[in-house]
Amino acid sequence: MLLTVLASTLATPYDVAVAKPPPGLCTNADAALPVIRQLPWAQQILDPARVWPYSTGAGVLVAVVDSGVDSDHPQLRRPGKVAAGEDFFQVGRLRANFDCDSHGTAVAGIIAADAAAGIGFRGIAPQARILPVRVSERGSTDGTANEIDPLVLAQGIRYAADQGADVINLSLAGARDDKVVRQAVAYAQRKDVLVIAAVGNGQRDDTIRPSYPAAYPGVLGVGATDIAGTRLQSSQIGPYVDLMAPGGSVVGAARSGGHNYYSGTSFAVPFVAGTAALVRAAWPNLTAPQVAQRLLATTMPARGGSSRAAYGVGIVDPYRAVTDGLTTKRPAVMPTMAHPPVDEVAAARTAGEQRLMSRAWHGSGLVIAAALLALLVALIVPQAVRRRWRPGRTPEPATEPIRDEAPDQLFLLPPPPAER
């Protein structure tokens, strides 16, 4: 579908709650799902806990322009974590902190889910705040955003920028360049918002397909990899692919509690958006373009290859994105090594001693060689005299024929004559 101190302080009691959307909405809502307790592979590889001593995303507002976010989810319900937001999909001023099909909830959880006792899944930036912006009821199954009204999407993007979002997560993609969406993205960028978008899930062959808003200037386009670091076959290729993130069977939060496995570039985007929140919290003076450059400069190589159109510059690395160059101090200048003055008298005495030792070894070697030579002469000369200096000969072996003995064996037939 498209669409260690901190661990204890962030942990919350885990009990399943039932979200209550506004009356009349979510007529076909997804049912609650069980929890997944194992540590997901994406969190194992990216290991966000390593970076939390330096940044947790505190003070950063990430807008999730999507299907809404279930703020009742146990890992998202901490007061102040998920704002009420606004629903641009329905007529009237409605809140957006509910979800009908879990797409936006999964995205928000990957970005900022709190730790919970006995649960391996947690967000990349657990102290970041989520601003839900509802522009669709359900995510698309083919990786496109054609079902989303471009005007509604543009309104949602502008709203997020006006609400002070530092990062906008757009887990959607379409083949059409809509002027209103392009202008809304530019509007957000003028407000120093970092816009991150999915590259889409429409790849079927080697054809490069258009993808918006990932292809707009300044937008970070995110593709998806599997557990082996290989691009998902559906993850689109093209010049709009800037970097990659886990997106194949990754764990995300589900509406009404629990978790689910999700695949697609939609779910790779929040790993980058969460990392952007970490960077913006750790480096508050960086502009959005500078944050984007930092994310690109600190990626890890993709095991699947180095094709720029397929993998961008590599896979996002939260730890390096935050910690590389964390200190602004220049390296200390190493002091020049001072060599002590040479004692010429002692050096001459040492050289003389070495020469005497060398001569002694040579003399000893000559004496030993002479002694060995004398010993050989004493052993060999008497024998040569007895043989009157004739060369010695070795006795010839016996001329009896040698019979090859066959190995012990059992014969099923009478043995051959040679064996009787």
Automatic annotation (TrEMBL):
Q: PROSITE patterns, per this entry?
A: SUBTILASE, SUBTILASE_ASP, SUBTILASE_HIS, SUBTILASE_SER
Q: Cross-referenced Pfam families, in alphabetical order?
A: Peptidase_S8
Localization per record: Cell membrane
GO CC terms on record?
Answer: plasma membrane
Asked if Transmembrane is a keyword of the record, the answer is: yes
Give the active-site positions. D66 (charge relay system), H103 (charge relay system), S266 (charge relay system)
Please name the GO terms that the record assigns under molecular function. Answer: serine-type endopeptidase activity
Task: Give the UniProt keywords, A-Z.
Answer: Cell membrane, Hydrolase, Membrane, Protease, Serine protease, Transmembrane, Transmembrane helix
Instruction: Classify the main location.
Output: membrane
Q: Where is this region: Disordered?
A: 390-420
Q: Name the InterPro entries for this protein.
A: Peptidase_S8/S53_dom, Peptidase_S8/S53_dom_sf, Peptidase_S8/S53_subtilisin, Peptidase_S8_Asp-AS, Peptidase_S8_His-AS, Peptidase_S8_Ser-AS, Peptidase_S8_subtilisin-rel, T7SS_pept_S8A_mycosin
> Highest taxon of the source?
Bacteria
Q: Which positions, given as ranges, span the membrane?
A: 360-381
Q: Which GO terms describe its biological process?
A: proteolysis
Domain named Peptidase S8/S53: residues: 57-314
What kind of membrane protein is this, topologically? Single-pass membrane protein
**Which family does this protein fall into?**
Belongs to the peptidase S8 family.
Please identify the protein, giving its name as recorded: Type VII secretion-associated serine protease mycosin
Q: Give the gene name.
A: mycP
